[in-house]
Amino acid sequence: MSTRTEALGKYELLNPLGLGRMGSVYLARDPFIDREVAVKVAHMEKLATDGDGSGYRRRFFQQAQTAGMLKHPNITAIYDAGVDGETCFIVMEYVNNGRTVVEHTRPSNLLPYDEVARVGMQCALALDYAHSKGLAHGDIKPGNILLSPSNVPKISDFGLHSDLTGEDRSSGADSRQESRYCAPEVLAGGPATPQGDVFSLGVVLYEMLTGHVPFRDGSPIATPLIDLRTDVPDIFQRIIDQALARPLHRRYQTAADLGSELALIADCSELKESATIRQGHFRALGESAFFSSFSDSDIWEILNSAEWLELPPGSLVIQEGDSESAFYIILSGTVEVSRGDVTLTTLGADDCFGEMGVAGGGIRSATITTQTPVQLLRVRTTTLERASTDLQLRFYKIFNSALVARLNHASSQLMNFLPVGSMG
């Protein structure tokens, strides 16, 4: 940085965090909302050696644009990007008291097997999410996976694959070190791909399991895990073999496939569903009209705390007079709403019910029974109370719209029973 040392735009730089190929990273503070952030500052010497610097600037900001499209709890968020004088910078989420996976690729500091599986599973699901958006990472390695104090992973530096061409990929000690994480087809000059990310994550998992690199002395065959750790469970060898398969038809076809295998090992009591089912649930919510105004991160927040129900016809969901602090969203199928022996209405996909009972203290004023096979999302009011203000407001806006629609429907029904002229 040639123009400032204490501030960059509105951001107050506090202290350096690290050095990457495309920029230096600083801990900073956003004074407008009093939040700590990480600020990546472009290497000015690269701007100077790149003619007018336009190519480097383009690649640098392409990272911000690419990563800014991704909203996932296991991918670091991009908040802002800009230029201050001659200095280009990107503002990112800061993982407080975090560290990189590099710390856990040393033989003396390896994580337990179930933790390796859990971290790998969450990374695989995050990659599968990015791949579903048409984006491959291209540079998965231990230094690009951050861990919170509770070992929640966050993948950083999405968009760097745009810089993995030509000189940057083929020369220098840094490039030689990174090549051990690249899939063979990428090293041969191919583009970053989802299956390439699977291979790279497989290398990271191998290092987290053993503290050693998989390919030694130029061999294209990975050293068996048991040669390095005699207690490693056999299932890990099968997973590693498939993740590091050189022929693409033998490698995992998607990151979700890898994630589902790791889920079999991970001791994730909070994630009772398999990795592939959770990813399918996320996509289903994203396609639902009910959640059309919700961001990807909002949907993940809801999915992580809500209960997914699949019920056959004739199932009692809510009983009139009961007390329950939860509301429901219909994802597919239909339910009947009744009071006493009178059927009031039928609700279908993208409708919600139970929210008025919650607002009224949890006493149910109607009975809800499934008419067809249904998929429901059950959300407890305590979950909504813990959610962000923006997320709560989105729900309340939908609840108000539903209430207005039901009042209009009730008014229409009432008009049908009134004698002509009785309204005036």
Plain-language structure description:
This protein has helices at 44-49, 54-68, 113-132, 167-170, 173-178, 184-187, 194-210, 234-243, 255-263, 275-287, 296-305, 355-359, 381-386, 389-417, and strands at 7-8, 11-19, 23-30, 35-42, 78-84, 87-93, 99-100, 145-147, 153-155, 307-311, 316-318, 326-332, 335-339, 342-347, 352-353, 367-370, 374-380. It has 424 residues and is of the alpha+beta class. The protein folds into 3 domains: 7-93, Phosphorylase Kinase, domain 1, CATH 3.30.200.20; 99-277, Orthogonal Bundle (Transferase(Phosphotransferase), domain 1); 294-417, Jelly Rolls, CATH 2.60.120.10. It has a 6-stranded antiparallel beta sheet with strand order 1-2-3-4-6-5. Strands 10-17-12-15 form a 4-stranded antiparallel beta sheet. A 4-stranded antiparallel beta sheet has the order 11-16-13-14, with no helix packed on it. β5 and β6 form a beta hairpin. The longest helix is centred in the C-terminal third of the chain and has 29 residues, at 389-417.
Summarize the structure in short:
Helices cover 36% and strands 21% of the residues. It is of the alpha+beta class. The protein folds into three domains: 7-93, Phosphorylase Kinase, domain 1; 99-277, Transferase(Phosphotransferase) domain 1 (Transferase(Phosphotransferase), domain 1); 294-417, Jelly Rolls (Sandwich), CATH 2.60.120.
